[in-house]
Amino acid sequence: MKYSMVFAAAAATAVSAGNTGKCDNEGGNFFCTAVKALQYVGLDVAGQYKEVTSMGSDGSCQFADVPFSGPIAPFDEDLSIHLRGPATIEKVAVYTPKANSKRDAPVPHSKRHGHQHLHKRFHEHSHEERAVGDVVHAKIDGQDVSWTNTYDGKGAASPQPAAPAAPAAKAPDVNVASSFVKSEKVASAPKAADSYPATSPKKTDTSNVPAGDYARVGYYDALSGEATGITFLGNYGGSGSGSGVWDTTWGNSLSYLNADGTGGAPSPTVLKGGQIPDAAEIAIFSDKPCTDKTANCGYYRPGTVAYEGFKGADKVFTFKVTMPSNGKKGWNEDMPAIWLLNGKIPRTGQYHDCSCWKSGCGEFDLIETLASGDTKCKSTFHYTNSIGNSDYLQRPTLGYVNYAVIFSKAHASASIKILADDFNHDVGLTSDQVEAMIVDDAKTPGGVSKMAIPV
């Protein structure tokens, strides 16, 4: 997304629930196994980052230290959604717990790019250990089984229950993440861009949210042109865009995005047909504008278009997206990506040094191609301690795929998971639905790549 950065010196422990197999070096980036899910665990590391407090016309930038701690911090702060084409997004949804929802108690834990960096380090994989006495639950061939663990990692393991007999089946092309994931199928081609309406976004209305522990607080449907609880922005501020500001020192601020996703607009619009042009980048924030009284929006230049992102330690982002390849080879061409940023970064400046990015306020690369035309998508987790993953998700070039990104306070984890083809990005989600999306060894016996955040 922006700067080149070196991995934290501390070695990370990589744990895989499946066989990661052979890893290949392709253009300086390691690619191991195609998986259906990725998870980052141990997100309860305390630290601090430097927040921008002023931006001078002479190019000076002032900072203040901001400490953070607790599960998910600083990713519990507001996050903005960023996408780069070529891509078509049919649906985007954001969910957060309802005020009266029942939440599980937290469990203890032990303790940019040029969007082309960070992924040049390979991490060995090992299996996660369970403590003696832990009751282990698993679903084996559709049947729930459990046993008490007596293996301490030093001697021979105690026998485990035999898996129920099952007929032989052809191995899938990639590891299957869980029974929640159905086989991929090619979706129908999107409508022509000019058949979609381009209207103004609607305000969030949670007064009549259907039953569910998580309310849908942001939603975009390209087929209907509905955009509720969200605002489309881009780095196009200044003359000609009709919104935001530009100067020779700091360049373009955020502006409203035009319906084609190619420039600025004087007022909020809705992205037309979900189509993001090749190499173009768009941002999605909430519909809540920052004001002088808004907590935690941080500093931003006078005149810029500033909105809050999506807050909370527990939150879910879902996407229905396709990323067809066009064969182009220029800078950032045919290199689609989806990532999340601490909202303070784009509100000051996504692509210059006067932001909190370098000091680790938070970026999560969800799906990122590292070379033009690549069909393998990597993931990287940036903050005080950064880590990348050498397992990868297949780029959805032939049809739409549903993805979920789940931040969980109770698990102190962030997960990326391919969802079933019929996932409908409904108005609400139950806690059980969200829990089923969270990747762990018991629920997902294969196709998961798990990375521990270095401490």
UniProtKB/TrEMBL annotation:
Residues 1-17 form the signal peptide. Residues 109-124 have a biased composition (Basic residues). Keywords: Cell wall biogenesis/degradation, Glycosidase, Hydrolase, Signal. It comes from the Eukaryota. It is an enzyme of class 3 (hydrolase). Residues 37-97 form the Cell wall protein YJL171C/Tos1 N-terminal domain. Residues 156-170 have a biased composition (Low complexity). This is glucan endo-1,3-beta-D-glucosidase.
